[in-house]
Amino acid sequence: MFPHRHDDERIDKYTGPYERWIFSEDLGRPFAFPAIRKGPSSHITALMEGEGMLAGTDDVELRIPPLWKENPDVTPFAMWNKSVDPDTDPVHEDVELARCLHALNGTRYRLNMPIDPVTWPTSYDATATPEGWQKPKVKPRVIIGVIDDGIPFLHRAFRDAAGDTRINLCWLQAARADTTAAVPFGCEITSTQIDQLRAQYGDQEVRAYKAAHAIDADLPEVDTVLMHHATHGAHIAGIAAGNDPFVGATDLPDDAAVIAVQLPNTIAWDTSGFGKEMMMLSAIEYIFNRARMIAQAYNCPEIPLVINFSYGWSANRHDGQSSFERAVDALITDRRKEQPCTELVMPTGNNFANDMHARFATDDLGDGAVSFGWQLKPDDRTSSYLEIWLPPERDPQGWTITVTPPAGSPPELQQTISVKANPLLKDGDPRRFVEIEIGGKNIGQLSADKHLGNRWRVMLAMIPTAGNLGAGRRTPVGLWTIHIDTGPDPLCEGEHIDVWVQRDDDPTQLGTGGQQSYLVDLSHPTPPRVFEPPTLNPVRGFGCLNGIGTAPSVFRIAGYMESTLKPSGYSGSASIKLDTQGGAVVDANLPAATATSDQGWFRPGLPSIGVLSGSGARIIGTSAAAATATRLIALNFIAGHPARQGFTELYPGITPDARTLTRTGPYRVPPVCGAAPKQPGEQPFIGV
């Protein structure tokens, strides 16, 4: 049972359904990632959506990370709620966080993940030069930014011809802080420190990482990931910016400087899309800021910059209008006015064949209604999420969503929600909530909210199906049925309803116990598992594009198999719809290009470095394809060429089939990695 909250105690007044779910002990908090589950959250990250600058209070200290420009449209910040005693756990942490936001007197916030108090430096100066920092030995012709987890900044792949590091700066966002810092939390490692660590510890890299707090078993958000053979971040950084036999690519020159940001493990732990935007946006702002600092040190204009951010999630608006995407688009657009050679490269995602997207048009809604299935797997130890997005600018009248549990479940689990505002919930986005309960205990949250005040979303959040997690409740396993009824206000011609399931896979190095749920088309026979569906059934791979990669300025990269030149079976795709004649029409968010993500049927993925110097691994996914494109773009910028120089135009003079174009985009990136033969010690590693 979710208890009543007064107006100034409602976390959703400022944020949204994910925050209400994640931070409420009565809802999903017992099943959240460790940083939230252990509580209380005295230090927490957030976004302020809207113009202006934040100001703290006597009880709340605010910190804004290094920004590229003042007064952005979306401002990342971190706050320390001094009224929270870290030795006690508030009965209702969502109430405490709501009061904290209420004291800031802002208009709209998006709460993100907590951070450990030991990552909070005693003093912070956003305008300070990092202690001990020195500009690169030679003026960079390009700066390569890498944002990922588990980045091995000591690896030999990032040394120049003299043996010194090309990584000029690396922000470990979740590491223990120094007393004073030029970053608001975590630890900033400079090239000077990297070279000193190597000189002190030689080839004993694990000891060096421990000394730098990059391996810290007492902090779950850092942990011992860099003691693993391979990490996602090592692999991607190696392909995008490394010189090593395991990469098998032409070496980058010494004047290709690197700025890296290592995200907290939670970024990989929770794949729902919650809690990451502040860390991600701060990382991009930081790289832009530090790239400007390097340029100023050389008294020159902005230096060409390409950032690789091989991450994403599956749900979201998919129209480029989320807060994170709008902020990123503004940053890239503004920097290009000073330096046209500016790119942010992201993958299209790996969910094409996973039945995680559905699109319903007028022909799919018989009598104005449609039903589909949501299959929840057994022994899932993480929450599962499903989002239904209504057409943009549509204000539905009389729409309802009904959720029915699997056969044999208690009938009380069936719940219906109206897609309209609850008049008792004042301020914030128009919204309403319905809890799904069994025996008086909550297992789910059904919500409807007008996201950012301009697009309606219905979200269903469910606790794990595993029953041994200590909370005394679990979600029934099986096929849940979702029924959409448009009542007297049917879809118009050309409109459609999109459904996305959030990723819930299990990152190899973290062992979350997630089990991926999927959609079931109840109106059509189950199609064979093929990579190129011959028909456009409502449940489809088309449209499973990276949910945070749809901003217009993002350089989206799909994946193809080098031996066949065809799309990799998992590679994400833009959406398509049928026109009035039944033909397929491509949505706006095409991949910019397709790059190698698999070398062949018997050599899936791409080779790259492992964590320790001298080790190698192989990653499968469009993340590696994006890193390949990043490397070639960097080489183009060094040569004074535009980003797409050397890309192959796939369809010159012809109009390709929409189903093909949405999976490839108009260009192919030629192979630049993996030319070297298999190295001793190369180990397989499945990427995300």
UniProtKB/TrEMBL annotation:
Keyword Cell membrane: no
Domain Peptidase S8/S53: 142-351
GO BP terms in the entry: proteolysis
Keywords on record: Hydrolase
Record's keyword annotation contains Hydrolase: yes
Origin superkingdom: Bacteria
GO molecular function: serine-type endopeptidase activity
Pfam families: Peptidase_S8 (PF00082)
Protein name per the record: S8 family serine peptidase
Species in which this protein is naturally found: Marivita cryptomonadis
